[in-house]
Amino acid sequence: MLAVTWYGWYYFKDLEDNLTTTDVIPNSVTESPDGVARKPLDGAVDILLVGVDSRTDAQGNPLSDEVLALLNGGVADGTLNTDTMILVHVPQDGTRAVAVSFPRDSYVEIADGFGKHKLNSAMARQKNDTAQELREQGVTDEARIERESTLAGRKTLIKTIEGLTGGAVTIDRYAEVNLASFYEVTQAIGGVEVCVNKATSDSDSGADFAAGLQTIAGREALAFVRQRGGLPGGDLDRIVRQQVFIGALAKKVLSTGTLTDFDRLNQLVTAVKKSVVLSERWNITEFAEQMRGLVSGNIQFRTIPVGEPMDTWGDGNVLPVDPVQVRQFIKGLAADSSSSSSAPATTTTPTGPDASAITVQTYNAAGVSGLAGTVLDLLARKGFQRGGAHTGTYSDTTAVRYAEGERASAEAVVVALGGNARAVEDDSVPGGQVHVHVGADYSPPDSSDPASADGTRTAVAPTTGLTPPITADGVVCVN
User: Fold this and answer.
1) Cβ pair 451, 394 in contact under 8 A
2) How does DSSP assign 23-85, residue by residue?
3) Alpha-carbon torsion 91, 326, 84, 78, what sign?
4) 102 alpha-carbon distance from chain centroid
5) Is the Cα torsion angle 164, 77, 227, 50 positive or negative in sign?
6) How far apart are CA 227 and CA 242, in angstroms?
7) Residues 242, 248, 252, CA angle at the centre, nearest 5°?
8) In terms of DSSP H, where are the helices of 382-462?
9) 284-318 pLDDT tens trace
10) 238, 225 in Cβ contact below 8 A?
11) Whole-angstrom Cα distance, residue 444 to residue 375?
């Protein structure tokens, strides 16, 4: 135990001493652009994980033609876009984490006065403007121009994400990976397990995957997270790919002996140093200590609510975003975890009135087209009286609301939903009725569950990804 403890400390120290860092997070109130202390709402750690399409390594050195060919990286077009943006929210106790994806084509207000554009252009717009300004000022050192303009671009991206959350989150850590990062890290840990619904291929990303469960590393890992051609959901399916990949990566590191395998740990640390950029003043040793209680099953993946794709004159095809919905969504993540520590949902059949005596009203609180009607159909098949399907206010969680003294009716509905909801007393609900507010966490009941006695499993597509909710606790088959 002493040997392993010393070895881990040595390598964390070595990692901190040799990391590539970027000064994008203000260190004090005076450094903050608005003069307001940068503290998250609940003392949590909020990390912005960014994947860029850069053809350079973490130190800014160009990737060789051989490496680009191996990675199917293609030729750089001079634009630094952020194709992956994930906000990782870790509450104070460090025992759980939620990773929220922001689609690259989200049509949002870009910070620093750039107007409304695709989210993935935020860094590039500021980077290009800053580079031009420096050249106009007479700066000729291209290394300095690259360094300062990239730094400005990162800061604009951070402010854009924070603005989109309406102040619900203050980003206090930043991590950036490039094309080579997935290759390096997955090679170091020996690959991860993923599952594909159907065989798929794409010449742009180099993807060529058979259906079913498989282990991917290196080039295949990069192709897996980059593919969007040939996928029914396009970039939204790619986001799901990225989520299941990161989940599998977390499971491999947290649930196996990776951190006690000296040779593999050495390879992992070397890979991180080569290909990852972290914000300055990030104490990795302290962070690792805070995360000691985290296990793979306590990592969940979500995606902000977006609308159906639409065409714009200046930005092409985009995904419309309702800032109010996004703010409600993110604020739910920053709330206290009291609901997660409460008693588990009922999973046995409760006593109470027969299903035929309960009228169910359903409310779509997830922004998923047709979801309220789908859930109402499901409950009607289980014998409940059909009420109406309505549009509700967005909610991160599914709630079954009931009148005073009628909890048993609500519990019957919770069971019919497979336990994927919580019962909440609500004075506004009429007697004899139960109101189901179907939130973003909803997943259809498992057909193998006794609560799904009719054997029916209704396929419900979440806002993005067309797949059930993802955690790092198992392999989810995806497009």
Assistant:
1) no
2) --S-SSTTTSTTS-----TTS-EEEEEEEE--SB-TTSPBPPHHHHHHHT-----S---EEEE
3) negative
4) 7
5) negative
6) 10
7) 145
8) 407-416
9) 767 766 676 676 667 888 888 888 889 998 899 99
10) yes
11) 8
Q: Which residues make Cβ contacts (< 8 Å) with residue 263, sequence separation at least 6?
A: none
Distances (CA, A) of 318 to 121, 287, 306, 333, 377: 12, 36, 10, 25, 32
Q: Which residue has the tokens 């006065």?
A: 113
Low-confidence ranges of the chain (pLDDT < 50): 1-2, 29-41, 76-78, 336-351, 446-467
Instruction: Report the Cα 81 to chain-centroid distance in Å.
Output: 18
Is residue 275 within 8 A of residue 185, CB to CB? The reply is yes
DSSP 8-class letter at 258: G
Sheet containing strand 212-216, edge to edge, reads: 212-216, 192-196, 477-478
| All residues at 6 or more sequence positions from 367 whose CB lies less than 8 Å from its CB, including other chains | 305, 307, 325, 394, 440, 463
| The two structure tokens encoding residue 417 | 């939903």
| Structure tokens belonging to residue 52 | 């860029």
Per-residue pLDDT, 268 = 78
pLDDT digits (tens, 9 = 90+) for 19-72: 788 999 876 533 444 444 444 435 678 899 998 876 666 666 666 665 666 656
Measured distance CA(35)–CA(45) in Å, rounded: 20
Q: What is the pLDDT of residues 21-34, one digit of tens each?
A: 899 987 653 344 44
Extract the runs of DSSP E, i.e. beta strands, from 275-336.
276-279, 299-303, 310-312, 316-320
